[in-house]
Structures are given as structure tokens and as C-alpha cells.
Specification:
The complex is a heterodimer of chains A (116) and B (113). Chain A is mainly beta and 116 residues long. Chain A contains no helices and 11 strands. The termini of chain A are far apart.
Amino acid sequence: DADVTQTPRNRITKTGKRIMLECSQTKGHDRMYWYRQDPGLGLRLIYYSFDVKDINKGEISDGYSVSRQAQAKFSLSLESAIPNQTALYFCATSGLSLAGGRNEQFFGPGTRLTVL
Amino acid sequence: GEDVEQSLFLSVREGDSSVINCTYTDSSSTYLYWYKQEPGAGLQLLTYIFSNMDMKQDQRLTVLLNKKDKHLSLRIADTQTGDSAIYFCAESIDDNAGNMLTFGGGTRLMVKP
């Protein structure tokens, strides 16, 4: 979705380096998510945020941190990158979802991160 | 807990029908989704089905839901080479935690000319 952008698109780094992945959206959505994708494992949720003051850990938050700088911006940091964090990272957004309602998520193009 | 499973790979010939299957374990699923991921791109929502429905048709796409067996399928009629992609099923449940999505591992569809 062109309304959800991620930078950088590709990054190669070394073990121990600090890395920040950025996500911006122009959809006006309150909710933002960070996922990682590994072959055969689908998407696993790292962190999510339902508004600027709300940050929640997902399934695999260890080794990651996030910052919600504004409604439109949600960044993911790897404080000290390790090789098993090599993966494809996706940011996603969604609007308000009533209890039991749909929660269609809109995805950015992804950031391919390689940790050597 | 939630677990969504899909077979890893499917190969079909152009013009044939493709059927991609998915099983899930959480009986309180409210909506189930099919996403498509083309090479080098993010996921795009293809279609979704509400859990009280058995079937939904949208042009070449047919979604079948067997709630008793917790089985979801996506049928693509007259499959084209442009349908080659990874297809993910996902479920959301009404757990007062914002209808979060749980994704399957993805099925890579290869369409041979």
C-alpha cells in the first residue's frame, strides 16, 4: 500500500550494531504494527501501538524496541543486532476496529535486513 | 492458543483452478482473511469472510469456510501467471484486545504456463 512507507528498503549491517527501521503512514490510522517474516513461519508480531501513548509487546518482542513519535510514525529499533534477526520486516496500519469487527491491515513494502 | 496452518507450496497450470487450504484452531474467530504477497511487496488483502458465513464469491475467488472443521479454503478459478504469489490466511478473534490477526505460514502458488 503506497500510503504506508518504510525506510530503508534494504539494509546490511554487522552483529552488535544499532539499527532503526522507520514507518510512516498517510492513512490517518491510529493503529500501527511491526511484523517480521521468515520463510514458512508467516508473519509474527513484534510490537503494536493503538495510539501515540499506547505501546504493546507482541509475540516476539525480545531484542527489539519501538517508538511512536506521532500518529503517522512508528519506528522499530534493534539495539544490538544479531544474525538471527535477519528477516523481512513489515509495518502495517489499521483503523478503529469494534469488538468482534474486521481489522483489515494495510502493509508497507517491507525492509529486508541482513545481519552479518 | 491460536495456530493457523497452511501447506507451503502449490503448483498449477495456467487456466486450471487453484485451491489453497488453511486450518485454524481458535473457535472464537470472528473474521478470516486471505492476503496475497507478490515478490518484493507487502501483503495485500484479497478477501475476507465473516465467521457466520459458509461461502463468499468475488469474481474468480471463492472462499469456503467449514467452521465445524475449522477449515478455510481459497479457490482461484482460471488461474493466471499473475496469480503466482504467496497467499496467507489470517484469523482475528474477538478477545477485547483489538481483533489482532494471527497469520498462517503462507502458501507459495506457482502457476506454470
